[in-house]
Amino acid sequence: MATDKKQEQEMTVEERLKAVYDLQTLLSQIDKIKTIRGELPLEVKDLEDEIEGLKTRIVKFKDGIEELRKSVAGKKNEILDAKAAINKYAEQQDNVRNNKEFDFLAKEINFKNLEIELCEKRIREYTEQSDRMQADIAKAEEQLEDRNHILNEKK
User: Fold this and answer.
1) Could you give the CA distance from residue 30 to residue 24 in angstroms, rounded to a whole number?
2) How many CA atoms lie within 13 A of 152 on its CB side?
3) How many angstroms separate the first and last alpha carbons of the chain?
4) What is the spatial distance between Cα 129 and Cα 68, in angstroms, rounded to a whole number?
5) Residue 95 CB neighbour total at 10 angstroms
6) Cα 20 from chain centroid (whole Å)
7) Residue 97 has what DSSP assignment?
8) DSSP annotation of 82
9) pLDDT digit of tens for each residue in the chain (155 aa)?
10) DSSP string covering 12-58, please?
11) Which of 87, 89, 76 is closest to 116 using CA atoms?
């Protein structure tokens, strides 16, 4: 009979230890959940801010591309104006009275040809810049899509 009481007390101590261990495990899990839950609003806010930043960045890139397109159109107009001036100077060269006028018109034609080359160079640069911006927009839109997906999961 004395041994039965000892076994009951030992069993209850063992059971108590197991119960305490289970309780501690559950409390640890609850603490983890509270920690995650506490950080989640901050993560959501950070994601929302990042999404807004990406949207702003995309808009700026699109505005930059539009400005570059306008610049290209302006340079093309400059080329047309320069070609018209070259034609005008060429006609005037046919009706010159002295070498001084001829040399002046030849220099003007040469200058306009240089302007045309410069405009073509600028057009190439603007086109390359526009292409880079298009690539940046694609990359930013991909990031935006990823961030939106992550945000939806966290919400």
Assistant:
1) 10
2) 6
3) 61
4) 8
5) 8
6) 53
7) S
8) H
9) 455 566 555 667 788 888 889 989 998 998 887 776 667 777 888 888 888 998 999 999 999 999 999 999 999 999 999 999 999 999 988 888 889 999 999 999 999 999 999 999 999 999 999 999 999 999 999 998 998 888 888 77
10) HHHHHHHHHHHHHHHHHHHHHHHHHHHHHHHHHHHHHHHHHHHHHHH
11) 76
Element (H, E) at 126: helix 99-154
User: How far apart, in Å, are the Cα atoms of 138 and each of 40, 54, 62, 117?
Assistant: 29, 11, 11, 32
Please, what is the angle between helix 99-154 and helix 2-94, to 10°? 160
Token code pair at residue 140: 């930013």
